[in-house]
Structure formats: C-alpha cells, structure tokens
Design goal:
Layout: H1 2-38, H2 43-48, H3 60-71, E1 78-79, E2 85-91, E3 95-101, E4 104-113, E5 116-126, E6 130-137, H4 146-149, H5 155-159, H6 164-173, E7 178-184, E8 189-195, H7 205-211, E9 216-220, E10 225-227
Antiparallel strand pairs: 1-2, 2-3, 3-4, 4-5, 5-6, 7-8, 8-9, 9-10
C-alpha cells in the first residue's frame, strides 16, 4: 500500500509539472502571437532573426546560449567559429551590442517609427581603427533607404566653413575618414566620432585633428535622425 501511494504521488507531481510546462509554452506562444500582431520587437527577437551575413562567425546555438546566460545575469564569453571571443557587450530594453569576434561587433537598435518600429544596425570593423556602417530595416529585415533615415556626415560637416585652400589641404592630408558610431537609448542620440588611424602622415596628424569636430550628434525624431546643432 505504501509503495502504491508513493508511485501515485510521484505520478501526480509529474503530471502537475507537465501541466505547468504546457501552460508556460502556451503562454509564451500567445505572447509571441501578440507581439507579431502588434509589431512589437525585443532585442532577442531582433538578433535571433537577423540575416545570417551579420553573424556569420556565430552558431545559432551559441547565440541562444549567450542570450540565455546574459538574461539570467551571467555575461559569459563564448568562442566563435574562428575560436575568437564573442559575447554580449550590452543589452537594454531596445538595444543589444554583440561582439562577434576579434575585429567585429554589431549593435541592434529598435527605433519607434510612427505607429510601428524599425531596426537600425551599427556594424563596426576594426582595421585596426574602427569603421562603422549604419543600415535600417523593417521588422521583417527588409532593407530600408538609409538616406531617408540619416544623412551620413560629409567632410564639410566635420570641418565647418573653411576657405577653398584650407579644404584642399585637408583633403590632401586626409585621403578618407573612418568614423565610429554609438547610440544612446536614453537620449535617442546617435554619436559619430572620427577615427584618424594610421593612414594620415605623421606630420599632418595635428593639422587634421585641429580642424575636425570631436564628434557629431544626431537625435531620432521618430522618422529620421536630425543633426543636433551646438
């Protein structure tokens, strides 16, 4: 009789556990359906549906483990396909920055766009100076026209008003300009920072630094980024 009661009790516990898991799965699926209908996105949903080309160095299973650990309070380092360190640098309610390898990281930013949301990505490649590329996508990862969302700073934005001769000198000293870009979700400000690197001749470094703005800021208006005037 005693053993029968134990078996019956264990069976009841197992059934209760399975019922709980089923309710949990059903609740999760219901939440996903609501999110899909409302267009609401999360950093997890964005990064796990990102185009493969953005995360070529990471296995999907590694990415999921990375997210699970981070969301449980553990910022664990994983190895990518090239045996390089990869990890989540930062995750907020609307942003996630992921170090995918030794020379590459990418930030995913969820931006309000009218009654819906869009995705901004900031891909950074270290060559060795950082060079950032910004792109915009809808919730289904269809590429949007960057020019409608942001006017990428030109040399004139960095140096302001100078004479034709001064501009020619700067262009000769600075064959091209790489920039870093970071987004602050608290202020909705996108900040560009110039990266001089090693491609400027030593004798011209100070000349170039003296004329370039330290950084340029753009604030998200709900439709596009607008230059912050100072």
């Amino acid at each position: 009789m005693c053993s029968v009661k134990k078996i019956g009790g264990a069976r009841s516990v197992l059934i209760a556990y399975i019922s709980m898991k089923i309710r949990s799965i059903v609740s999760t699926l219901a939440l996903l359906v609501v999110m899909a209908m409302s267009g609401q996105m999360t950093p997890r949903s964005v990064v796990t549906t990102a185009p493969e080309k953005m995360l070529l160095s990471l296995d999907n299973s590694i990415l999921l483990d990375m997210l699970d650990y981070y969301e449980s309070g553990v910022a664990r380092i994983f190895k990518n396909k090239a045996n390089e360190d990869s990890y989540i640098v930062e995750m907020t309610e609307k942003t996630l920055t992921l170090k995918t390898g030794a020379c590459h990281n990418v930030s995913f930013v969820i931006l309000p766009y009218g009654k819906s949301e869009i995705i901004m990505t900031i891909e950074r490649v270290e060559t060795p100076s950082i060079d950032a590329t910004i792109s915009f996508y809808d919730s289904r990862w269809q590429l949007l026209d960057t020019k409608k969302m942001l006017r990428i700073p030109a040399l004139s934005d960095w140096i302001g008003k100078v004479s034709r001769e001064e501009r020619a000198d700067i262009e000769n000293a600075l064959p091209f300009l790489m920039v870093d870009a970071t987004f602050n979700p608290a202020t909705s400000i996108l900040t560009f920072t110039p990266m001089i690197g090693d491609y400027v001749a030593t004798e011209n470094v100070e000349k170039v630094k003296s004329v370039l703005a330290e950084h340029l800021e753009y604030v998200w208006s709900g439709k596009s980024f607008k230059r912050v005037k100072k």
